[in-house]
Amino acid sequence: MNNLLNGLGLRAKKNGTGKKSQYQTLYLTSPYVNNMLVKGSFKTIVVLPKYVDPNEWLAYNAFEFFNYSNLFYGSISDFCTPQNCPTMSGGLVMEYTWTDATRKATKLSAPVYVDCMTTWIQNLLTDENVFPTKAGSDFPPDFLTVIKSIFRELVRLFVHIYHHHYTQVLCLYEEAHFNSLFAHFISFAMEFDLLDKKDTAPLQDLIEIMEGNNIISA
């Protein structure tokens, strides 16, 4: 791993205990942070199209972001094991717990957490009472709350991949695709106020760089 990172022009940082920390700033390093599929702001493609129902737009994008983030996780999932990732975390200070139907918070390894998360979202997306597909069916009154919950979970997946698996993303030459998906995701979340600051805090440095490059904008 060290040889790989040195080949990328990086070295492992050390924390206060003298032990090697996660390579948290790899995704912030040039040229990787600037690798995008397209140039320009994602703002133009996230605004609500004319004559489109807002809930339909939210539903469509939630479905798309879930599928694409799932694909990216699948590409690095062999490296995300209970041994390598004993907790669902983002760097050294952020650790997520899974809250089940009884509201009990449980610490899970990252792959188990992601499995619970994807199953939960998939069940929502296929529930006609939540994501209606039949003509004449209405979205539930709390649909926006459901969308926010989905986005809150998906951003945790981005956090985990950026902080713990970006080396694999680079080795697979996926950084331009992954950066673009994240920029699109964050732009959409900003447009419809779907995430709180605490949700995006672990990747705030990356968001600020993308804002400075006019890739995303509020």
UniProtKB/TrEMBL annotation:
Zn(2+) binds at residues 80, 85, 160, 165. The keyword Acetylation does not apply. The keyword Metal-binding applies. InterPro entries: MOB_kinase_act_fam (IPR005301), MOB_kinase_act_sf (IPR036703). Keywords: Metal-binding, Zinc. This is Mob1/phocein.
